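Weekly puzzle thread! Below is a chain. First person to post its structure in token form gets bragging rights.
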Amino acid sequence: MTYEEVLSRLFSERDEGYREFHKKLLKNENIEVIGVRMPVLRRLARAWKGETERFLTFPDEYYEVTFLKFSLYALLPFDRFCEGLSEMVGLLDNWATVDGFHAPCIAKHKEEFLPYIRAFSRDGREFVERYALVSLLHDYVEEKYLPEIFAALEEADGSRYYTGMGAAWLMAEVLIKCYASGLTYLKEGRLLPFVHNMAIRKACESFRLTKEQKEELRSFKKATNGGKIPEKG
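Winning reply:
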């Protein structure tokens, strides 16, 4: 399979209306979007599962090609996945690719993968830090790993929008799955107001918390005192 063949297939699946919608969501004018819907991309990733090494040679001219590259890379065995991971995360430049980059192999190698998360959570690049937070959300939200999660929440720069939203999403999941421990940490006030309040908001949107828990959480919202909300992108 050649790069030209991949582009031909992707352009045959193009939805112009979706292209405009998704490009606005990405908030990155430097990203070229063909306009292929997510179910189609996931179907193509399954069909091209054996083409990982070839895809890694393709240029990152289009969002969809890069997304497929990450989708296929995520299916590699753990050792091979980690081998080129630092280079891969360096390509991350939007929230959608980050959030879709979930490697099933991590679930069986949680302890071995923690050093990567620790390094990425203080990397300094917005989407690399978001990747660390989203990785914790996917595979580590349980009592055993709460110290790692809380450390990552404080390491990552929550003053930037996409890192802050990733931190809020992770903290909300902690509140949902480990309510008592999560609430104790939240009450310590270690998170930035934006992250703190957004975590409460997202947790309260879940059907997995009771009405009483949601009321309790809302009582701990921080006054922002006119504090600036991080800007997107």
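Puzzle host: Confirmed. Bonus trivia for everyone else. The chain is about 60% helix and 0% strand.
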